[in-house]
């Protein structure tokens, strides 16, 4: 029709070019960020529901741009993935977490285990297990301190290969959790074969728990089913994104083991996490 003529097309083109340019800019800036130490890790506490004790933390990437301020992972992780930069960034994160564990161990802090998110691009590299092994050795920490978070989509990808790789990681003594569980496709037959330790229930389900009526009931059934499944397979079940006492109560009722979320603590810099642990 008339309004889909060349004028409109041009406009569309221009905005696409702008988006592409912005991404390229962000990519350049991300390279610079790595070089000049603008990236850091924040740590979010995880708690056992039964004992109320701290069981560990999740390390989350933060980027503080000198002019633009904080840029959220939701913006820069996709750019890092598309450009492949997530591989060196991920390796840095792995090593930084291991070094942080060492510092906390030396300081006598009882911090439990620390998990680090792993991109699919890192996981499929033939040297990934070696990279993890070197990080643990270089920092001289017990491998049990380290946990790797891999999304359901990653582990359910090349499943046979994933099983081999996960077994190798677990032989090192490192723990593995399946992140964002329930948002991707899982084959139950494969889930049973996956050598992992933890299922993390995605925040999207947790959020539904304190709605009214049917949505809440459905969310509750889902949380219950995931918890049951996890326990049948001998796994721990952790719920992420817990923000309200109602959500916590529901999760406790269905037998979920561990929780993480703003209700207990936001992701924080290492020194703040240390204070948080000493005060709790
Ligand atoms: P994720 O692995 O699912 O991490 C949980 C996200 O939920 C984090 O967002 C965390 O700050 C946020 N969160 C935790 N508790 C609550 C809560 O109670 N309420 C709400 N509304 N949000 C909560 P963040 O830090 O922005 O990270 C977003 C995503 O970026 C992560 O999702 C993960 O997929 C990715 N990411 C972060 N750090 C890394 C990393 O080092 N490597 C890789 N590959 N990905 C990372
Ligand atoms: Ca995660
Ligand atoms: Ca998650
Ligand atoms: Ca999530």
TrEMBL record:
Residues 23-280 form the EAL domain. Signal peptide: none annotated. This is Diguanylate cyclase/phosphodiesterase (GGDEF & EAL domains) with PAS/PAC sensor(S). It comes from Sandaracinus amylolyticus. The chain holds residues 263 to 542 of 542 of the full protein.
